[in-house]
Design a protein that fits this description.
- By secondary structure, the chain is α+β, with helices and mostly antiparallel strands.
- It contains 15 helices and 13 strands.
- Helix 5 packs antiparallel against helix 6.
- The longest helix is centred in the middle third of the chain and has 32 residues.
- It is globular, with a radius of gyration of 22 Å.
- The structure holds protoporphyrin IX containing FE.
- Protoporphyrin IX containing FE (HEM) binds next to helix 10 and helix 15.
């Protein structure tokens, strides 16, 4: 048997696919090989946990914690309930409400198109994704799409970037004095907490008024409250509030920015855009009557989503911590080691993908001249992998397909502008976002 390497013996930064970095006095491990990473991500919750930085900073800000930051048995318990609420059958029942939210986005963009106004793309898409999640997960129609400026979505937008800033800052300055941004953040956290309190109170009222709901809760929030009320459930109102916030935070930026990247890439590749327009205008021309079957039968749109997430995964890293001594490849990894998983390396490299930097959605089609092998497809992991894989992926894809189909069915894209006229820059603000996209549309006659 060959002897194991120690982390200290690994090459320094950029010794792909496995190298060490030193932060302060600790050695940390960076892994970019998707197969090794997959093994680690599958070994959860026993072998690895999420790195605790994010949840510690979130808790210090006064944010209630949910599935994303739970570990061990507590995670298992919450995961089961969340998965049940996001199961395809449940999402299917929600399709009419999602159509309503999609039509509101259309209603927001029509006057902008007529008046030739620039559309702040990401902000509008985040209103769309927040409304979509609130409807599905909490049964609340918050309608930020038709509201004015002071909407919950604008408060939420401050939270994730603030968590990332604090995670990365060398000194915890906010503990010693509060800057203007810290005070603004505190205000946002208290508005968010009050709003979540309202969602929970409304759901409790519905459960009180309609006793049959306790047997058949209609959404995640009702199901979590019913579960929390069971004696010995291990869940309480803090878990309920924590999961409301988790769904809002985990489902908003991710889906909106993936859509924004897709719109940007389509604009950069006109031949791909024309092909997608043709598919949508032929198979899904009328957003008012969209069905799940119709959305499931748009193969090129599916391919565009996969290709966007291959090139522009909004979660390009994952931070893990070893819960016991283990071995990764040929490297001995002691308990407590911080591990950084790089999810975007194999997905943009030969030999997994030919012409890896090009946006070529057709490669994902089953009838492509050289269809991707199952192994190559696994090199892209935009939703993570293993037992903690994203529970919102089915909803996210459906939301993206509906918004994208509506956009292409009803409008022509005149421009997708960036601040400097060049392809959009990437900014890591917890999720990886395109910087400053604005959209100009023309209504189709
Ligand atoms: C394009 C959109 C999305 C992307 C790219 C995305 C990506 C991810 C990734 C990479 C993870 C970590 C997975 C892992 O550790 O293996 C994750 C976890 C999670 N996502 Fe998503 N996500 C998206 C949309 C959503 C939506 C719409 C929701 C909910 C409504 C959601 C809820 C969650 C939750 C709760 C977790 C934590 C799961 C756990 O720890 O068990 N996500 N997501």
């Amino acid at each position: 048997m060959t002897s194991l390497r120690q982390i200290k013996d690994l090459p320094g930064p950029r010794g792909w696919p496995l190298f060490r970095i030193r932060l302060g006095r600790t050695l940390q491990l960076v892994i970019a090989d998707h197969e090794l990473l997959n093994t680690l991500m599958r070994d959860r919750p026993e072998g690895f946990r999420r790195s605790p930085f994010t949840s510690q900073i979130g808790a210090e800000m006064g944010l209630p914690q949910g599935l994303f930051s739970a570990e061990g048995e507590d995670w298992r318990n919450q995961r089961r309930r969340v998965m049940a609420s996001f199961a395809p059958g449940h999402v299917r029942a929600y399709v009419p409400s999602l159509v309503k939210v999609t039509l509101r986005l259309q209603g927001r963009w029509r006057p902008a198109a007529r008046e030739r106004r620039e559309i702040p793309l990401q902000a509008d898409l985040m209103r769309f994704t927040v409304d979509a999640i609130a409807g599905l997960a909490f049964g609340t129609d918050i309608n930020t799409l038709e509201a004015g400026e002071d909407v919950i979505q604008q408060r939420l937008d401050k939270v994730l970037p603030a968590i990332l800033r604090r995670v990365l800052s060398l000194l915890p300055t906010w503990r010693w004095f509060k800057s203007q941004a810290d005070r603004e953040l505190e205000r946002s956290v208290s508005v968010i907490s009050a709003t979540i309190g309202d969602f929970v109170a409304q759901a409790r009222q519905r459960l009180h008024d309609e006793s049959s709901l306790r047997e058949q809760p209609r959404n995640l929030l009702e199901a979590m409250i019913v579960a929390a009320d069971e004696p010995g459930s291990g869940l309480d109102d803090k878990h309920v509030a924590g999961n409301v916030l988790t769904m809002l935070l985990a489902g908003e930026d991710t889906t909106a920015n993936t859509l924004a990247w897709m719109i940007h890439l389509l604009h950069l590749y006109p031949a791909v855009l024309r092909r997608l327009q043709h598919e949508v205008r032929t198979l899904a021309p009328d957003p008012a009557v969209y069905t799940l079957e119709q959305m499931d039968a748009l193969p090129f749109l599916d391919a565009c989503a996969s290709e966007t997430m291959r090139l522009k995964p909004v979660a390009p890293f994952i931070a893990l911590k070893a819960l016991r001594d283990t071995v990764v490849g040929d490297v001995s990894v002691p308990q407590g080691t911080q591990v950084w998983g790089v999810l975007r390396r194999d997905s943009v490299s030969e030999p997994h993908f030919s012409r890896p930097a090009a946006f070529e959605p057709q490669r994902w089609l089953d009838d492509a001249p050289q269809p991707l092998s199952a192994a190559a497809k696994r090199a892209a992991m935009p939703f993570g992998s293993g037992p903690r894989m994203c529970p919102g992926r089915y909803l996210a894809l459906l939301e993206m397909k509906m918004a994208m189909a509506m956009l292409l069915a009803d409008f022509d894209i005149e421009a997708v502008d960036t601040p400097d006229g060049r392809p959009a820059q990437e900014r890591m603000a917890f999720t990886m976002n395109p910087v400053g996209l604005s959209l100009r549309l023309r209504e189709r006659s």
